[in-house]
Amino acid sequence: MRKTFVTVLIIATAALQLVDAQSQPYLPGEKVTYQIRYGIVGSGQASLEIREGSHNGKPVWHAVASGQTTGIADALYRVRDVYESYIDPENDLPVFTIRNIQEGRYRKYNEVGFDHNANTDSTLVYSDLTGDHKGPKGLLDIVSCFYWFRKYYLAAGEELVPGETYKMMTWFADELYPIILRYKGKEIIKIKGNHIECYRFHPVTEVGRVFKTDEDMAMWFTADENFLPVKIRFDIFVGSFYVDMTSYEGLRAPLKFID
Predict the structure, then answer these.
(1) Is 55 within a domain?
(2) Would you place residue 213 in the very low, low, confident or very high pLDDT band (cuts 50, 70, 90)?
(3) What pLDDT does 156 receive?
(4) How distant is the alpha carbon of residue 110 from its chain centre?
(5) Which of 45, 56, 77, 90 maximizes the CB count within 10 A of its CB?
(6) How is the chain classified by DSSP, letter by letter?
(7) In the chain, how many domains are there?
(8) What is the pLDDT at residue 192?
(9) Would the CA dihedral through 131, 132, 137, 138 be positive or negative?
């Protein structure tokens, strides 16, 4: 459960391919906020933001995903989760990440560094909790892969085929964490009283532990120049969670709502 509160906002997949500058679907300054609903008393807020920054004296793009409970849910089970990724703008790969989890009495803080240049066939990973590791070339973290997905997959211009799955590998919670998305098709959904055309994806989930079926999680990305995540729904044994966009700023292009 600790992996699902903020993670559902940012799970995505990508294909390793080059795109030109015109296909850049986001820029520093973009920020999106969401409302999280669960049952009668469950509620929360989350945000995804990317801005200019620096790491070890080098310019980076600093992406932050955060989530917290509100209202009665906050009184019953206080959550303050923050995931940070420092991304090299030259190759869109993470160089440093922070995972800061506060859920009830549970606490977890983890810093991870990535070296994509030392080896030609792998990524070197260093965790302040578990030491040195090795992963596949082009390894992403759970935040940077969200932006990688939008740029290298959705913005690449290749035709999406319903039913096909797309795979990638991330480093999450100090272990390799495979991400698999199945494309469902286009769908018009309602956001903030407006209709918008979206791409619908189903992250392939493990049936039996938390989810009942392999389509119990769904994500919607706008079918425009932003490829913005605007809605997430996931059903687990204890109920359903809904994540809906409530505000946005700094988008590359205006959202294309349908009259």
Answers:
(1) yes
(2) low
(3) 86
(4) 18
(5) 45
(6) -TTTTTHHHH----------GGG----TT-EEEEEEEETTTEEEEEEEEEEEEEETTEEEEEEEEEEEE-HHHHHHS-EEEEEEEEEETTTTEEEEEEEEEEETTEEEEEEEEEESSS-SSEEEEEETTTEEEEEETT-EETTHHHHHHHHHTGGG-PPP-TT-EEEEEEEETTEEEEEEEEEEEEEEEEETTEEEEEEEEEE---BTTTBSSTTSEEEEEESSSS--EEEEEEEETTEEEEEEEEEEES-SS---EE-
(7) 1
(8) 82
(9) positive
pLDDT digits (tens, 9 = 90+) for 222-256: 999 999 999 998 876 566 788 999 999 999 999 99
Residue 76 included in any domain? yes
Q: Which amino acid is at 139?
A: L
| Domain encompassing residue 208 | 7-15+25-258
Least confident of 38-42, 77-81, 119-123: 38-42
pLDDT digits (tens, 9 = 90+) for 12-42: 333 333 334 447 999 999 999 999 998 776 7
pTM recorded for the entire structure:
0.86
Give the span between the Cα atoms of 100 and 66, in whole angstroms: 9
